[in-house]
Amino acid sequence: MKLQMRFFVRAASMAALVSISCLPAIVKAQAAVDAVEQQDIQARTAWRETMHQTVAPARGCFHATYPSTFWEEVECAPAPAWRSALPLARNREQVVGNGHDYVFGAPAGSLISLAKGSFPTVKGVTSEKSVGVAAFGDGGILGTNEYTLQVNTNFYLGSAACAGYKNCVAWQQYVLSTNTPVSLTSAKLTRDTEVFIEYWLIDYGVHNGRNICPTGFIDSGEDSLGPGDDCVQNTPATLVAKGQLPITDLASLTLSGSASAGGTDAATVTYDGEAYTATVVNSYTDMASGWTQAEFNVFGNAGGSEADFNSSGVSITVKVAATDGSSASPTCVAPSKDDGTTGETNNLKLGSCTATGGRAPYIEFTETN
Predict the structure, then answer these.
(1) CB under 8 Å, gap of 24 or more: what pairs does 138-142 form?
(2) Model confidence band, residue 21 (pLDDT cutoffs 50, 70, 90)
(3) What is the pTM of this model?
(4) What is the rounded distance in angstroms from the CA atom of residue 366 to the CA atom of residue 148?
(5) What CATH number labels 62-74+81-160+170-201+240-368?
(6) Which residues does UniProt assign to the signal peptide (predicted)?
(7) Which residue of 1, 83, 171, 266 has the smallest Cβ count within 10 Å?
(8) Which of left, alpha, beta for 310 (phi over 0: left; psi -120 to 50: alpha)?
């Protein structure tokens, strides 16, 4: 019996020694796997940054898949009849948007050529619903997972596209929408996620009851404040995903807008290992000559609607980085009636904002419920 016991003890001891001797190899193997995964994460992050900086070769719709940095032309969806809302005076302190937002302000004398928005930290987001707002006639595309990401320019007074009309201002929105009308002639909804640019000439010309807008624009009627009409149009849309991307994917999305004098303007979105872009000629708004502020956030889906997040526990960090030809620190333009250019909102409340200069200047702020 004692002999058997000794045998078992010795066997157990040998097994333990073998197990312990294998530990360094196991640890090394796991470390190697972790290193490879980290390298892949860094490579994908660098690739996404490259795609936001890489201009598509022509006007149209394009797609790229990691690790390729070549924009491949794809079939465009028709220009959607999606319409944003201009900001109105209302209780801005209760929501983000509608003129109540932190905005990236370029240093004096600098012009923005590219602005990129992302969400470095997203906590507690489980659901979202786009709801109508009475001040905007309860308009918009309403329901669960109905939202937009928007990079919005300032209102540019003096744009060459305004053809000398002194009250006219140009405005441009780079939009990712989780649902859009099928086309300008059909109100049927795609139920797909698309990226496109909406471009405006506000208070253009002198209203005369007829279409007075320049070629490439739709006359949406008399401006509420001035003598002219509001002229608007969208680029054809690039399909990002069949179906609506859920709000729980928010941290995976980055949207940028660029403007190039004499060239093309582009709305670009990256989502995991995919990149999508839609472009339009800059001459429609001449925004490259007057882009000094950039707004970015998640909002309701068109028509002045509001993105309502789940009732509690939401905390989001918003980052707006821009290329403005300067390494100086930008300005966190404080919320006021004159800052932020979209009428859409979300139901979160703004926290603090910090501005950082350097090779890629940015502002970063928080919003919670």
Answers:
(1) 139/85, 139/302, 139/303, 139/304, 139/305, 140/85, 140/300, 140/301, 140/302, 140/303, 140/304, 140/305, 140/344, 141/82, 141/177, 141/179, 141/180, 141/189, 141/301, 141/302, 141/303, 141/305, 142/301, 142/305
(2) low
(3) 0.90
(4) 18
(5) 2.60.120
(6) 1-31
(7) 1
(8) beta
